[in-house]
Amino acid sequence: xxxxxxxxxxxxxxxxxxxxxxxxxxxxxxxxxxxxxxxxxxxxxxxxxxxxxxxxxxxxxxxxxxxxxxxxxxxxxxxxxxxxxxxxxxxxxxxxxxxxxxxxxxxxxxxxxxxxxxxxxxxxxxxxxxxxxxxxxxxxxxxxxxxxxxxxxxxxxxxxxxxxxxxxxxxxxxxxxxxxxxxxxxxxxxxxxxxxxxxxxxxxxxxxxxxxxxxxxxxxxxxxxxxxxxxxxxxxxxxxxxxxxxxxxxxxxxxxxxxxxxxxxxx
Amino acid sequence: xxxxxxxxxxxxxxxxxxxxxxxxxxxxxxxxxxxxxxxxxxxxxxxxxxxxxxxxxxxxxxxxxxxxxxxxxxxxxxxxxxxxxxxxxxxxxxxxxxxxxxxxxxxxxxxxxxxxxxxxxxxxxxxxxxxxxxxxxxxxxxxxxxxxxxxxxxxxxxxxxxxxxxxxxxxxxxxxxxxxxxxxxxxxxxxxxxxxxxxxxxxxxxxxxxxxxxxxxxxxxxxxxxxxxxxxxxxxxxxxxxxxxxxx
Lengths: 267, 248
Known about the structure:
Chain A is mainly alpha-helical. Chain A is about 70% helix and about 0% strand.
C-alpha cells in the first residue's frame, strides 16, 4: 500500500490528528452509545453504578474473610481493583470492535479511523465515571487519608489513556482483519483478571511468583490504585509501564500507517 | 470548482468470509512455508477495473448497470471510502453521499438526535446544526415524528430524514444511490427540486439508478457499468430501450 493513488490521501500523522481533533464528534457518538443503551430503562446509566455497587458490596466482606485481612484495609483495595479492572477490560475488549462496530460510518465516507478508537475510549471513560464515584463512600468509611502524592493518579490516568488509544488502534486493526483475535483477547483478559492483583493483595505473593507483577495490567493498576489509597506506586511499576507504552505506541504506529485505509476493505 | 478524475482505477476486494480470515490458517500457512497456502488463497473480487472518468462542474452523471455491476462500489470510491487498489483518483470539492439512507442512523435515537449525529459526522459543528434543525425538520415533513425514535419510522420516513439532513449541507458533489423512489410522490418532487438546486450551484451529481426514466430526467450524461468496467452509453439509447420494453 505504499503507492499513493489518490489526492484524498493524508499522511499517517495528519490522518491521526484529523480524527483526534474532532472531539465534538467522538464525544457525542460515545455519549449517545451510553445513553441509547439505557434509553428504555428507568434508571438509565445509573445501572452502571448500581450493578458495580452490588458487586463490590457483595464481594468485599466475603473475600476479606477468605483472605483473612481486615475489612477496612481490604475493602478500598477491592473496590478500586474491581472498578479499574472493569475499565481496563472493557477498553481492551471493546477496542477489538472499534471499527467493526463503526462500519456504518466507515462505509459512508472518508473517515480518519482514529476517531472511532476515541469513540470507544470516551464511551468507556463515561462508564468509568459512573462507577468510580462508588469509591468516595468506601474511602470515607475506611478512613483513608490522601496526601499530595494522590495527584500522581493524574499522570497515571493520562498514561492509561495513551495506552488505551494505542491498543485500540492495534487491536482494532488486527481484530477487523482476523476475527478470531477478538475471541482470543476476550479469553486472555479473563485469565489476566486472576493474574492481576484485582482481588488479592500483591504483598501476599510469594517471592518466586513476583514475575506476575510484570504484567502491564498489574503495573497500571498499581499506578492508579495506590495513590488513591494514600500510598505511592512502586518505581518498578512506573518503569515497566513506560516500557509497555513504548511498545504499544510503536506497534500501533506501524500498523496504523500501513493499514489505516485498508480497514474498510476488511469490514 | 468541483471535479472528479479517475484514471485506470481498480478496486479489488479480498473476501475473507467462510474461514479464510482465520488466524489459524494464516499461521499454519506461514509456519509450513506455504504448503497449505491454497487454503488461505483469498478470493479476490475485482469490483472495479480500468475505470476512466472525468467529471467537472455541471455534470450530472447517471450510472446504470445490473445488480452487482459495481455501481455502489464506484459511488463509495468517489466518496473516498475505498482507496483505489490501482490507478489514480483525484477529487476536488466537498462531498455529500446518500448511498444508503439507513447508514449512520441510530434506530433508538429520535429524529432530532439523528440530525445532530449525522450532521456532526458530516463535519458540521453543533452550532451549525442547531441553526439548521428547524429547516431540516420542515423539509423532511415529518412533523411531530422528529421527536420520536427512528425505529418507529417507516422506510420512507427514514429516507426523508436522511435526505433532508444530507442535502442541508452545501456540498459540491452529490453522490446518490437510487432511493428517491422510496418516498411518496409529494416528497419525491420536493427532493428532485432540492437535488437540482444543489447541482445547479456548479456541482456534480452522480446518480446510480435502475430507472432509465429517472436518469433521463436528472442527468445529462450516462455510463453503463458492466462487471466492474465502464461502457459508454447514450441517454437517448437507454430511454429508447425502455420504450421498446414497455410496448405490448
